[in-house]
Write a structure and sequence with these properties.
22% of the residues lie in helices and 37% in strands. The protein is of the alpha/beta class.
């Protein structure tokens, strides 16, 4: 595919162009879209920190030590199959997945693993498959997924993803279906070799349907995960999505979600970021239907020299919309965190009710958290607000606990757990909330007193 690029290419983009390799088995329409996306990335390269959207994330390490994908499709498939043992979740990565085995699709090194997945016996009207399998069976679904963010400003990595994605998942739910049991998507990185993993997925929920989705990310070794998901909710549809990120200590995790909400649709999103050297979780919501609602919540715990960035963008484009955002962050030692949130109320989106809150703790003289909530309002009959706070642990509460015989480190962990644990209250059902609480408690045990 790189042969079609006949204009100057940014140096950091060259390794990825060289790794791009056409798959002769792919349809022409897909190959054409890959070439177009690759050309766009070649022109833009990596985002610059002088731009507002990426100012809080340092990507120089990725530019200096590139992580191109495994180039040939056949090699990618063999690599994924070698990374797992048939019928068993790798023990070192199993903790991120739910203990009970329900409807589960597993991606290993960015590719679907049938041996680890349980996708049979889904209710009528519910289709869960890999993106690669959907190319032949549902090309319109893949086309919808490819459109997400591929040409959006400040999204060069989404364009690279559209050019290089190897697989992903497609979840399609017919109108009028209610699923109480969560559908689970597990993303594993085997650590077999340093590489980038590009996955692109689609969730399409029909009118009046209700679905719960749980995604977890874990891995070993050095890798770059570049994940893009498109969420499309029909009129009156409801989706609750929970994301747990526990990547390897040397991993780079860049995830972007693009959501479109129809009339009276409801989106609930919660993300817990616990692992990865550089982590960016981004979600863009377009409320195009009247009465659409979204709730965006999350929390992160960053330690040592981790970078964690949460970016939210909500566009209210119709009347009677509602948004609630609440994010909490903790930075320890020399970690850096950032929250960037923007809610835009477009002309005609009267009666919009939108509120955004960012609360953060700094533990250590060298820790840093930047928080930047923004409102853009182009309608005159709205109710909107935002707030932000950055502080330290309550010394009075810490003294109270230590005075009653609780060791200082244990008391400190208790206060952090209480601060972040409050964010988990919005997670449903209870099985997901308890799972996240367990993973958070495990992470807190690894904390050390900052200097």
């Amino acid at each position: 595919m790189s042969a079609v690029v006949d204009f100057p290419v940014r140096p950091e983009a060259r390794p990825y162009l060289d790794a791009a390799c056409a798959d002769p088995g792919e349809p022409d329409w897909l190959a054409s879209r890959r070439r177009r996306a690759l050309a766009r990335f070649a022109e833009e390269g990596f985002p610059r920190r002088r731009g507002e959207a990426w100012r809080y994330l340092d990507l120089r390490a990725l530019a200096e030590a590139p992580l191109p994908p495994v180039s040939r499709p056949a090699e990618r498939a063999v690599s994924a199959e070698r990374a797992v043992s048939a019928g068993a979740m790798p023990p070192r990565l199993a903790g991120s997945a739910l203990a009970q085995r329900g409807f589960r699709l597993v991606l290993v090194d960015g590719r679907f693993s049938p041996a680890l997945s349980t996708t049979a016996d889904l209710p009528d009207g519910v289709r869960l498959s890999s993106t690669a399998n959907a190319i032949a069976g549902a090309p319109d679904a893949v086309g919808t997924a490819l459109d997400a963010l591929s040409d959006a400003p400040d999204q060069p990595f989404a364009a690279l993803n559209a050019a290089l994605f190897s697989d992903g998942f497609v979840l399609e739910v017919a109108p009028g279906i209610v699923l109480e049991e969560p559908i689970e998507i597990v993303h594993l990185a085997s650590g077999a070799a340093p590489a980038s993993l590009h996955s692109r997925s689609l969730v399409r929920i029909g009118a009046q349907s209700r679905v719960r989705l749980f995604e977890s990310f874990a891995g070993e070794g050095r890798y770059w995960r570049n994940d893009v998901v498109a969420l499309r909710l029909g009129p009156g549809a409801g989706l609750d999505r929970v994301v747990l990120v526990e990547e390897a200590g040397a991993a780079i995790h860049l995830a972007a979600t693009d959501a479109e909400l129809g009339a009276a649709a409801r989106l609930g999103s919660f993300v817990l970021l616990l692992g990865g050297r550089t982590v960016r979780h981004e979600i863009a919501v377009h409320s195009t239907g009247e009465g659409a609602r979204c709730r965006l919540d999350g929390a992160f715990l960053a330690t040592q020299r981790q970078q964690v960035n949460i970016v939210t963008t909500v566009h209210h484009m119709a009347a009677q919309g509602e948004t609630r955002e609440s994010f909490k962050g903790v930075a320890v030692d020399r970690a850096q965190g950032a929250f960037q949130g923007r809610i835009t109320v477009h002309p005609g989106a009267q009666k919009t009710d939108a509120h955004m809150l960012s609360r953060n703790l700094l533990l250590g003289a060298h820790a840093a958290i930047d928080t930047k909530p923004e409102l853009e309002i182009f309608a005159d009959d709205v109710k909107c607000s935002h707030g932000a706070a950055v502080g330290d642990l309550d010394e009075a509460a810490l003294f109270y606990l230590t005075a009653r015989g609780i060791p200082r480190e244990e008391a400190r962990q208790m206060l952090i757990a209480a601060f972040l644990g409050e964010a988990l209250d919005s997670v449903v059902p209870a099985v997901l909330r308890e799972h996240l609480s367990t993973r958070l408690a495990r992470r807190l045990k690894e904390l050390e007193e900052p200097a």
